[in-house]
């Protein structure tokens, strides 16, 4: 005998990840989560930040990551582009102000609570495809977190290792000899395994990482007032000293215009790299064609935008800000982004021009001179391209000033990696939790932070002095984050314009689409050239996928229910009345049109339910089955006197039905849940339940109720006929 048309364990066709459930009263027509209309309930508010600060102070926190790139960016620019470096930097400034700044200003308005592009992407691309896309974004975010720290540490070690102070160099020599002596007493297998590890720069890098980690333990709770004060002091000192170096260089170039003329003559004649064959001069078109392919190598100067959005909860807004749409916070964050972008672009342009023109090309290519520390080279009074000493630029330059500048550079680089690492606890674990991985206990213990810290030590020791490996991975992650941000902004604008009825040709935002194409192409090019960042990100994705699948399957019978929200006051009062019923009978239905009168007759006949007992129909609709926890919306209506409990925003039909029965069982009579018999294959049913939330409903409802933490006499009964 076929099963009746009320809900059985057999699942319907799996829903498309792009389909949305039909809107209901109390639920917006665009499918977005509705706001509760219950005036007695507290309105949802974002998680409170430890404190809020004026945006100039938050700018100092952002400056740790953003402005610290001045320590190495001019050297990287010359290494990648030669004498074309200033021209390529002009393009980098245009990309910053024309692409990155508009994208992140838009995201700041659409995600003002610290989620950044991650939160926006999760909202605009739902379903399993969205979760996979989000996982890839988190993977590159994790790579960014790790290699920001390792690359900053390695470049800080470059400044310390090659500081020419005699006493310091003597101390490093003594430490190196002591290490070699200690290694001589090790067993042969230990000597072989430690070959190449006891390198001066590697040891200095590990020491810096240990000291910055110890400093981080003081601020383990996140961005505190003391951390912001330390950041402000560090950024202020570094910017002032950098301004002295760069400003002195600009003044020297103004007084010696022949240096600029000589540099431009080399650029125009094709003499872009010393010792390389010069191409035939081709005018501005040839220059532009030579500069554009070099853009990806110089994009580290864009680092810092994503961190700005993560730090948005720190920004103080207006007193009358709406917690859901804090316009004051958004405005101040956009002001912060603009000022940071303009300041950084100005510093990059001037510092690259000064170092490219004034520093001899040979010094730019040799470790210990200007490579990875070109501004420090000038601060120490290094030789200029015209044969003069940099002291001719400014008499304060020399050993003392250069040593102080090295110390300021090391401080901002060490804190730059630490500031990004502080976002770890509030960024990655919540999204992994929504993938089905339980991370509440690990966040309390800091397990993920310790795992990433251990990975940083391993990478520092493994790559040793190969700073380019750290840089390539860091650059890949930065470009990938920009590409995902542009993708999220593009999709969001498309969806909003679609909802407003715009024509298709006008729905695409051209600036965001160009930004997506630019950053996407740059990411692919860098990953193809040096794939270390993509490999680490791929390993992260594979590991999390395996763990999340195992965890989600293991926790599939967990009662992942937060609370019901009610669509209106009528529903809330009706729910209270149902909770007081003596023996409620719940009959789950499939979504679609139903003749409730015929269904009631069929159910009462087959389940032998007396006419004196009231029947309540439950209609649960799955919204996004990829979500793990659910906060359903309930609307109760009557159809010719028959009660229909309509539950939307579910990630699993079984969990919604079980939650409904358990909530009604708290007071009054213990309900019964009646199902039809299922003819579905058990394996298919379980797979549909895990992936789409709609399979094996009777058995899962029974399991969830049986495992619920309530007294046995208050557990609803499940009847299958």
From TrEMBL:
Membrane-spanning parts: 84-107, 128-147, 202-220, 227-254, 287-315, 335-359, 407-429, 441-465, 471-494, 506-528, 534-554
Statement: the UniProt record of this protein carries the keyword Membrane: yes
Superkingdom in the source lineage: Bacteria
Stretch list, region Disordered: 1-45
Residue ranges, compositional bias (Pro residues): 22-36
Record keywords: Membrane, Transmembrane, Transmembrane helix
Record's compositionally biased regions (Low complexity): 11-20
Protein name as it appears in the record: Amino acid transporter
